[in-house]
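[job 4471] stage=fold_predict status=RUNNING
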Amino acid sequence: MLKMEVPESLIDSLKRIRKYEPIEESLLLRQALEYGIRDIEKELAIKLFSEGKTTISESAEIAQLSIGEMIELLSSRGVKSKITLKDYKEGLSSALELV
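[job 4471] inference complete, writing structure tokens
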């Protein structure tokens, strides 16, 4: 079990959401935490790829996205493609595993 203090502004936001969407408070908090962590994973993946510290496939794994989705995300953020032959082979290998 994880304990944490929640700022009053976030509690107010939770109340506002629950006013329009009747949902258990604990479920709403879990969903908010999950969405937030997913966003952090994506931002980290973008940062690491942009800095040349990861390949597209490694970044996709961090972000929990497919390689194609990762490429789209990078493109939407204006990150120039640095696809190498290694990236291409890893992507092809991953695709073949799905077949």
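[job 4471] summary: The helical segments are 8-20, 25-50, 56-63, 67-76, 85-98.
[job 4471] exit 0
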